[in-house]
Amino acid sequence: MTREEKGAIIDELSQKFQSIPYFYITDASGMSVAETNDLRRKCFENGIEYVVVKNTLIKKALETVTSTDYTPFDGEVLKGFSGVMFHPENGKAAAKLIKEFRKTNDKLKLKGASVDYSVFVGADQLDTLINLKSRTELIGDIIGLLQSPAKNVVSALSSGGGKLAGILKTLSERDEQ
């Protein structure tokens, strides 16, 4: 691979790392060609881009990213065989795919991930990443919590007014009889 080709790969990766807030670094070493093709097919079906790149190129691309500190990846994450999964919209999609794929093939391992520019290191983080709420889900939860007291007050006032009117009507009907 020439220096120009390496530079082009580093530039492409650094653009993806800066623009896509969700990526996972995996280890698929020991997988057969058929198993790798199955993984790639499942990635394609789920809208995930899967790229196998040399660790040195990944490291150099991550060094160009200024928004997040990716130095925790320098240890065990960027050793051995590395593949990167990118999903532009969903931070859970790759984690769910990895967990589902591991049910039939335990050779695929999570080495590290970046979700909304937060760094997660280690295979033990997979369940955490699956259960992690996205930014829009958290905003929706907060809005729901903020609206809840107001809805309770409005419903209490509207239902109380109806009861009060009913009681007054019944009392007025009694007085007339």
UniProtKB/TrEMBL annotation:
GO cellular component, as recorded: ribonucleoprotein complex; ribosome
Keyword RNA-binding annotated: yes
Residue spans crossing the bilayer: none
InterPro entries cross-referenced by the UniProt entry: Ribosomal_uL10 (IPR001790), Ribosomal_uL10-like_sf (IPR043141), Ribosomal_uL10_bac (IPR022973), Ribosomal_uL10_bac_type (IPR047865)
Name of one Pfam family that matches: Ribosomal_L10
GO biological processes: translation
Superkingdom, natural source: Bacteria
GO MF: large ribosomal subunit rRNA binding
Keyword Ribonucleoprotein applies: yes
Key words, A-Z: Ribonucleoprotein, Ribosomal protein, RNA-binding, rRNA-binding
Subunit structure: Part of the ribosomal stalk of the 50S ribosomal subunit. The N-terminus interacts with L11 and the large rRNA to form the base of the stalk. The C-terminus forms an elongated spine to which L12 dimers bind in a sequential fashion forming a multimeric L10(L12)X complex.
Matching PANTHER family: 39S RIBOSOMAL PROTEIN L10, MITOCHONDRIAL
Family assignment from sequence similarity: Belongs to the universal ribosomal protein uL10 family.
Function: Forms part of the ribosomal stalk, playing a central role in the interaction of the ribosome with GTP-bound translation factors.
Name recorded for this polypeptide: Large ribosomal subunit protein uL10
